[in-house]
Amino acid sequence: MKKLIWILLVASFSALITGCGGGSSDTSSQSIPTPTPSTTTYTIGGSVSGLNGSLTIKNNATDQSIITSSGQFTFDKPVSQGGQYNVTITAQPNTQTCTLSNYSGTNVNENITTILIICTNNPPSTTSLSLSTTTLALATSGTPRIVIVTNTGQVSASTVNFSANPVLPYGTTSASTCGGTLTAGSSCTITITPGSAASASASAGTAAVPSTLAISGSNTNSLDANIYVLTYGSIYQSGYIFSIDDSPSATNNIGGKVLALSSQPTSSYWSTTDNNIPGITETDTSPCNGANHGRCDTTQIVSYYTALSVPYGQYAAGLCKSTISGYGDWYLPSICEMNNTTSLVSSSCNPATQDIQSKLVNTGIVPLTNYFWSSTEVSFNPASVVWVNYFDPFGGSVVNGASKTTALASVRCTRALTN
Question: What is the pTM of this model?
């Protein structure tokens, strides 16, 4: 009995060993897998402001992002814990410049959201020029006058220069401080020194033609300045110049006076009634210097007759209130503006007064032949009599007094030059 139990125990143990080993008890060739540790990563980003266009940026020279609007941005590829980031701009918007701040870092241990990109508009590549004047009138052999060129833009103007077409009159010269780079906000000058030749011959009977200075730079607008060189008899601003004032500052035009190119259509009364208009005789100094200042006289006369409701067409000074050849500031000339050498009133004339008789008629430029009304009343009978001048191109000119209500004389208006 004992022998049988022992045999069963041995057999059971053998079967147990065989079942556990799957038929084999050798396990020395099998390996146990090692688990892969997880990697911590962080995103890289920030914000863009002011963007107008397309901006291309890269992180660490590889991870590219194209941004088309302002706001938050994040690169596609995160950075491992302990890594670094370095953001650069690789393509700017077409019309802007964008700048970076907080764009790099090392030992990354959190999401980066502090990269800041600010975009601003580029200044224009072109700039603007302006001129102190677009018309410069000079007297022959007179004071040099100046055109000032100013860079009103935000960038430097390059190769600023000018050319004249047609060329300046013979003897007239130009000098310039331009001719190069003109920084934003700065100015240069073109100085014109007149010679003895006018822009058009006074005897030709044609209007003065300007020499046009075309002024520009390689990155600027183009501007024109018209240069006139004038003398007595030059046709300018719709009249014959008979008076020149060269005293204005060098950046301004000359002053002066012109005689209308033609007389008013018909001879007329000076007025239809006898009236004493205060302050316009050859001896008056207030409110007008009556012998010398036809514009002041005309203002007094027109004011007087307007108050009486007399139409402009019914008196000599009123005829000069017409718009003539585009100008509406004509006036009836005083006796000294017509003839300042006559013995009758010469003592009242300003010696510097330049007159129609000597500058236009005696020279044959304007061959007037007739009596013409002045704006000056005769002091011994101002209510009824005014001074008239008889123009004679052959030297027979005379000054006389004439009744206001006689249709004796013609009207030829004058005006002062304007800038």
Answer: 0.73
